[in-house]
Specification:
296 residues; six-stranded mixed sheet; 30% helix; elongated
Length: 296
C-alpha cells in the first residue's frame, strides 16, 4: 500500500479533479439501447403544491402507533410516490412508517421542506434517500456534495438518529456519473459519522426483468353491419375543373378548357431562350392516348 506525502498528495489531487468535473448528464445517451423504461407504475396522483419550493409535496404520518412500535420516517423524492399513495404496502411489524416525498426535489429543496415540516411524534429513526435529482440540478460533484452535506446536517440536528439510503440506478444517466455521485454522497456521510446503505447491487442493469416494461396489447376494433366504401376515381380519366364543381370524363372524349385564357406576350429574348431548349421546328408531341390507339 502506498504511503507518505506523495501518496496523500495524489489522492487529494484525484478528489479535486472529481469535484471540478462538470455534470453533463443531458448529453450522455443511455447505457444500452436495449433497455426500455423503468417498468409499470401507477398513475400519478394529484398532490398539493408546496409554497416553499413550488413542487408537489406530501407528508404522510401514521395515525397511531401501537405501544412498543418504533416510528420511522422516510424522506425523499419521487421514489416514494407509490408508498405515499398506498399502492405499495410496508410490512407490518414493530415499525410504524411515515413518508415525506417531494418529487423532482434536489438536496436543497428537500432540506427546505424538512426544516419547515411538522413531524409529530418525533421519529425514532429518519431514513434519508440520497437525492438523485442532483445528477442534473448540480453543476459539479463538489457542488452536489456541499448541498447534500447541508441537508444531512439539518436532518441530524432535527432528529436523534439518521441513516442514508443510496438512490437506485437511473437508466437515463451515465453509469460512471452515478457512481461518482454515490461516492461523493458516501464521503459526506462518512465524515459526519452517518451510516450509508448502498442499494445499487440490488438493481443490476443486466437483469431485464427489473427494468423492461411489460408488453402492451393494442385492442382490436370490430365493425358490425355493412360498410360503404367510397367509389374510387379512375386515374386515367380527365378532370375538368369549372366554377365550383369538377367532373370526370373518359379519356376518349375531347374536352374544351373552360378556364378563360389570358394571352401573354414574351420578348424576343425570352422566345429565343425557349427555342434553344425546345426548338420550334420539331413536331408536336404525341399524346399517350394516341400512342395506345396506333400501337399494333
Amino acid at each position: 500500500m502506498p504511503r507518505g506525502k506523495s501518496s496523500r498528495r495524489s489522492q487529494a489531487a484525484r478528489r479535486r479533479m472529481v469535484e471540478r468535473q462538470p455534470l453533463n448528464i443531458d448529453t450522455v445517451p443511455p447505457a444500452s439501447p436495449e433497455r426500455r423504461g423503468t417498468g409499470y407504475r401507477h398513475a400519478v396522483q394529484e398532490w398539493p403544491i408546496s409554497a416553499l419550493t413550488g413542487r408537489r409535496h406530501k407528508l404522510v404520518l401514521p395515525a397511531e402507533s401501537p405501544a412498543g412500535n418504533k416510528f420511522l420516517l422516510v424522506v425523499g423524492d419521487s421514489h416514494l410516490r407509490s408508498l405515499v399513495d398506498g399502492f405499495v404496502k410496508m410490512p407490518e411489524g414493530r415499525l410504524s412508517f411515515g413518508f415525506m416525498s417531494t418529487p423532482g426535489a434536489s438536496a436543497t429543496e428537500l432540506r427546505t421542506e424538512l426544516l419547515n415540516g411538522t413531524v409529530t411524534p418525533t421519529p425514532d429513526l429518519v431514513c434519508l434517500l440520497a437525492p438523485s435529482n442532483n445528477l442534473t440540478a448540480s453543476r459539479t460533484f463538489g457542488e452536489a456534495g456541499v448541498d447534500f452535506a447541508k441537508l444531512l446536517h439539518s436532518a441530524c440536528n432535527l432528529f436523534p438518529e439518521v441513516v442514508v439510503l443510496d438512490f437506485p440506478p437511473h437508466l437515463t444517466a451515465d453509469a460512471d456519473h452515478q457512481k461518482l455521485m454515490r461516492e461523493e454522497f458516501h464521503r459526506v456521510a462518512a465524515r459526519m459519522g452517518v451510516k450509508y446503505l448502498s442499494t445499487a447491487e440490488h438493481f443490476p442493469l443486466d437483469c431485464p426483468g427489473i427494468w423492461t416494461s411489460p408488453p402492451r396489447f393494442c385492442p382490436r376494433i370490430f365493425l358490425k353491419g355493412e360498410v360503404i366504401m367510397p367509389r374510387r376515381s379512375n386515374p386515367f380519366e380527365w378532370t375538368v375543373v369549372g366554377q365550383g364543381k369538377k367532373t370526370h370524363q373518359p379519356e376518349e372524349v375531347e374536352q374544351e378548357c373552360s378556364i378563360p385564357l389570358n394571352p401573354v406576350w414574351f420578348s424576343s429574348a425570352v422566345m429565343d431562350a425557349m427555342d434553344a431548349v425546345v426548338p420550334s421546328h420539331l413536331s408536336s408531341p404525341v399524346k399517350s392516348s394516341d400512342a395506345k390507339r396506333t400501337k399494333r
